[in-house]
Amino acid sequence: MPPRVDFTSQRLFVDAPLRAGAHVELVDKQAHYLLTVLRMQTGARLLIFNGQDGEWRAEVVRRSKKAGALTLLEQVRPQPVPNDLWFVFAPIKGDRAAWMVEKAVEMGAGALKPVLTDHGQVKAVRMDRLAAHVTEAAEQCGVLAVPSIDAQRPLSELLASWPAERQLIFCDEHAPVSDPNMALAGLEGTPLAVLIGPEGGFSAAEREQLLALPSCRPIALGPRILRADTAAVAALAAVQMAVGDWR
């Protein structure tokens, strides 16, 4: 049985190798958060991870009001195998974009792939903001295998080089099978990707390219039209429940 996630301790992502006895210097924002906002003193403990070396219990070493370090004490969870579920999405505007990315991390996406679509409203993704949203979500929900993030590129370009072995779950209100469980039947153990379109939907040319892809599997998400961020959660939940790691 895998080690249980400790949701009672503060968790922090650090960009440094982790090993017993090592010291990790706190960067400016992290030092401000731990030492000023949370007012942690020397000896306070928290959990840290880097997406590669598992989760570690660490102790605060406070050097001044604004500077400090972390001393690693013990590993509490080993590094898990990265999730193999891709989340392909047309970025949306405002706070809902952060919410959608956060929920994708919580739902077990292992790779985030933003795409440019004909009707998409966001033509340039801030990769630093996207990475920050991913990190924050991982800190909050106990994820150790932090999802990778690809640079944004046109959907047509991604589809042109799509790996034949990976099934693309295309969320489509016009899907011929209305029951997601039936549409996903037989995909257990198959590499999967979930595609969420923009608020304006896919263009006719994009739909044609998608439906011509041999590994494309259209699924419907119920009788109502969903916003892109809602559709993302619904689709990821349907996949994880039917053929993913919720079973």
Low-confidence stretches: none
Cα radius of gyration in angstroms:
20 Å
Q: How large is the share of residues in beta strands?
A: 15-25%
Report the major sheet. 7 strands, parallel
Order of helices and strands: EEHEEEEHEHEEHEHEHEH
Q: How many β-strand runs?
A: 12
Shape by Cα distribution: elongated
Number of helices: 7
Average pLDDT works out at 91
- Structural class, from helix and strand content? alpha/beta
Helix amount: 25-40%
- Distance between the ends: 15 Å
Tell me about this structure:
The strands form two sheets. Strands 6, 7, 8, 9, 10, 11 and 12 form a seven-stranded parallel beta sheet that branches. The mean pLDDT is 91. 29% of the residues lie in helices and 23% in strands. The two termini are 15 Å apart. With 247 residues, it is α/β, with parallel strands linked by helices. β3 and β4 form a beta hairpin. The protein is elongated. The chain has seven helices and twelve strands.
